Amino acid sequence: MFVMLPVSIKLAIRSLARNPLRTVLTMLGIIIGVAAVLTMVALGTGARGSVENEVSSAGTNIVFVRSGNYTRGGRSVGIASGNGAATTLVYADAEAIVESISGISSLSPGISLRTFITAGDTREFVRVQGVASNFSEIYTWSMLRGEMLEDTGTPQAVLGQNLATKLYGDRNPLGQFIQVREILYSVVGVTDGAADDHADVLFVPWETLQSSMGNSHVDSFTIAAEKAGETSIIADQIKGLLRARHGISNIEQADGLLEPDDFVVETQAAQALTKGLYTPAAAFALANLPKLDEVTLDEMSDTLDRASNTMTALLASIAAVSLIVGGIGIMNIMLVAITERTREIGLRMATGARSGDVAMLFLIESVTLSVVGGFIGLMLGLFSAQIVAWSLGWPATISVFSTVIAIGIAALVGLVFGIYPARRASLLDPIDALRTE
User: Fold this and answer.
1) Contacts of 64 (CB under 8 A, 6+ apart)
2) pLDDT per residue as tens digits for the range 305-338
3) Res 383: pLDDT
4) What does pLDDT average to over the chain?
5) 120 three-class SS
């Protein structure tokens, strides 16, 4: 039987080519089914990845490191009082943090000052913040106009939306120049970010601003953790690393407390939780923050798993219905083909073809219909997924494994729904078949 397989494939293709319109209409169910499933899988996978990223960060994945320490502590609260201003935070510290601590997705050094800026005839006193090009990724900004700063070494500027309105009104600020401390910055974008009053801030490259101020230190690091539940752990690791790099002793002093840090490390969640609290209350809240992080992450993970399972079940149901409809179409047309070719079947058997050879011929025709339809549906699904993703602004992701599975399932549908017609053809009596008109 398998020796005749190449011949059977050629005969099956030739038979399907005799009625191209009917063949295409028969494959239509498989084409639409595979295309629809791949489109939804692409959008579903992309959306899940997007939601997973959002859930993993969920707005509380940021760790702040600030130069200087103004903590009001003492023996009564068990926290060492800070020593005030410091200029010990440098870019080498940022490199050490990224190299030594895992779970960090982005880090941006920061330089900040309040000064007058000049834009044409307009002069405003604003906060100017020097940042890295990945600062927008940390806060997940969307740009209202233009783009974020690039690491080109040229003086560029991004405006908060409120500042852009103050300086330029309804005019397009892109390509305009703003002067800050004798340096002209070209405006490349306007952000919609509102966190930390970003809407009223002028953002420029931190290295350019640092150079214009004549400083060798930085004011802060803004760090994005890969997962929100790990921010407390990362903050503790950063604190230990910076204490060692800054030569701060871990030996208890006369008051029983450790030597204070010359910096402050604070998570976004801790900042929000302790806002407006006195030091004792803030210390109690911070002591319980790691547990809060763990609970929050577990709850978000459970929610994501439930949503993923629901989406998988929905896609599986739609896939099953679509492919069953396509398989029924293939079975129907194969039964029609057997009726039309009864005399041909009888002739084949009369000239030596066995029942298995006849069954194999029709089974191969069924599988060929399904596989070719699957390939066409695959191409259509990839194309439609990109169109839908582009029009709706959703991500669309299709893995190689998904495409292989789609073709494999299409072949399986052809095989399953082709068994009955193939068996029916193989059981025909040669004498009766030859007598058929």
Assistant:
1) 220, 221, 222, 223, 264, 265, 266, 267, 268, 271
2) 666 667 666 766 777 777 788 888 888 888 887 7
3) 85
4) 79
5) coil
Enumerate residues 6+ apart whose C-beta is below 8 A from 177.
119, 184, 185, 186, 187
Buried b (16+ CB within 10 A) or exposed e, 300-312: beeebeeeeeebe
Domain borders along the chain are 2-54+298-435, 62-273
Interval 340-361 mean pLDDT: 77
Model pLDDT, residue 57: 47
Which residue type, as a one-letter code, is found at position 27?
Answer: M
Rounded to whole angstroms, the Cα distance separating 36 from 380 reads: 9
- Higher local confidence (pLDDT), 100 or 139: 100
Q: What whole-number distance in Å separates Cα of residue 156 and Cα of residue 29? A: 55
Joined together, the tokens standing for residue 112 give 């900040």
Q: Are residues 407 and 375 in contact, defined by beta-carbon separation less than 8 angstroms?
A: yes
Picking from 270, 266, 430, the residue whose alpha carbon sits closest to that of residue 353 is 430
Decide: 125 and 136 in contact? Cβ < 8 Å: no
Which helix (H) or strand (E) covers residue 177, if one does?
A: strand 177-180
Angle between the N-to-C axes of helices 289-340 and 355-392, in degrees from 0 to 180, rounded to the nearest 10:
140
Question: What six digits make up the tokens of 212?
Answer: 């214009």
Write down how long the chain is.
437
Angle at 409 between CA 406 and CA 411, to 5 degrees: 110
pLDDT in tens, 179-192: 998 899 999 999 88
Q: List the structure tokens of 14.
A: 């030739």
CB atoms under 10 Å from CB of 233, counted, come to 18
Question: Average of pLDDT values for 84-98?
Answer: 91
Q: Is 399 exposed, middle or buried (0-12, 13-18, 19+ CB in 10 A)?
A: exposed
Q: What is the 3-state secondary structure (H, E, C) of 129-164?
A: EEECCCHHHHCCCCEEEECCCCCCCCCEEEEEHHHH
Which residue is listed with tokens 């809240």?
Answer: 285
Token code pair at residue 94: 């940022």
Q: Which amino acid is at 286?
A: L
Which amino acid is residue 396, in one-letter code?
Answer: A
Q: For 234-257, b where at least 16 C-beta lie within 10 A, e where not — what string?
A: bbebbbebbbebeebeeeeeeeeb
0.85 cut: is pTM over it?
A: no
Q: What is the pLDDT of residues 269-305, one digit of tens each?
A: 666 555 544 445 445 444 455 555 555 555 555 665 6
Q: For residue 163, what pLDDT band results from cuts at 50, 70 and 90?
A: very high
Q: What is the pLDDT of residue 113?
A: 92
C-alpha–C-alpha distance, residues 204 and 187, integer Å: 9
Sign of CA dihedral 250, 255, 261, 267: positive
